[in-house]
Amino acid sequence: MRRFLGLCIVLLLLGCSPEKPRFQSIDLTGADYAKGFSLPDPTGQTRSLADFKGKVVMVFFGFTQCPDFCPTTMSELAQVKLNLGAQGDKMQAIFISLDPERDTPELLQTYMGNFDPTFVALIPSLADLPALAKDFKIYYKKVEGTKGANYTLDHSAGTYIYDTEGRLRLYARYGQGVAALTADVQQLLK
């Protein structure tokens, strides 16, 4: 009888434990990669995840001349911020350039301003970019065009999402949609 009562108590306690959040994005909690960055913004100021403590941080790698994935994703992140209403200031979008040869500081500031003036662009050096991409498991490859400077980049198109303590939590696949992204950010803000 004691064993039965003990088992019942354990089961009741398990039933009272907080439910694990259900995310729309891929849960990466505890991953041992993409732990952070230390990169200059267009003004030359070095930025890191610690600068955004208290905010859900959404990191996307891309380039300003991207015809599809990049502007679509940045537009979606701007919509997520709007959907958050009063909590919108607790979300930070970060765009890390995969094309530091052409993505000048001035161009990146203008590009970010097209989506939201609070969005931050970061510019790794050409020398540091391979190691950064490897750490974040980002694929990118320069695809030469018909004219010398006329090239494009193939690249990963997902978004890393960090919680308010700067811990990697989620990976949102491209095309997941604004509603799913908004729900995930709201869950991380609880």
What does this protein look like?
This protein is α+β, with helices and mostly antiparallel strands and 190 residues long. It has helices at residues 2-16, 69-83, 105-113, 129-135, 178-189; strands spanning 26-27, 38-40, 46-48, 56-62, 91-97, 120-122, 140-144, 151-155, 159-162, 168-172. It has a domain at 60-190: Glutaredoxin, CATH 3.40.30.
Give a brief rundown of this model.
With 190 residues, this protein is an alpha+beta fold. It is built from 5 helices and 10 strands; from the N terminus they run H-E-E-E-E-H-E-H-E-H-E-E-E-E-H.
List its salient traits.
Glutaredoxin; alpha+beta; two-stranded antiparallel sheet
Produce the secondary structure layout:
Elements: H1 2-16, E1 26-27, E2 38-40, E3 46-48, E4 56-62, H2 69-83, E5 91-97, H3 105-113, E6 120-122, H4 129-135, E7 140-144, E8 151-155, E9 159-162, E10 168-172, H5 178-189
Parallel strand pairs: 4-5, 5-6
Antiparallel strand pairs: 1-10, 2-3, 4-9, 7-8, 9-10
The CATH homologous superfamily name of the domain at 60-190 equals Glutaredoxin
CATH topology of the domain at 60-190: Glutaredoxin
Low-confidence parts, pLDDT < 50 over ≥5 residues?
none
Could you state the order of secondary-structure elements as H and E?
HEEEEHEHEHEEEEH
Strand content: 15-25%
Overall body shape = globular
Task: Give the terminus-to-terminus CA distance.
Answer: 41 Å
Mean pLDDT over the residues: 91
The helix/strand class is alpha+beta
Q: Provide the CATH architecture of the domain at 60-190.
A: 3-Layer(aba) Sandwich
Q: Give the total of beta strands.
A: 10
What is the helical fraction, as a range of percent? Answer: 25-40%
- Describe the biggest sheet? 6 strands, mixed
Rounded to an integer in angstroms, the radius of gyration calculated over CA atoms is 20 Å
User: What would you call the quaternary organization?
Assistant: single chain
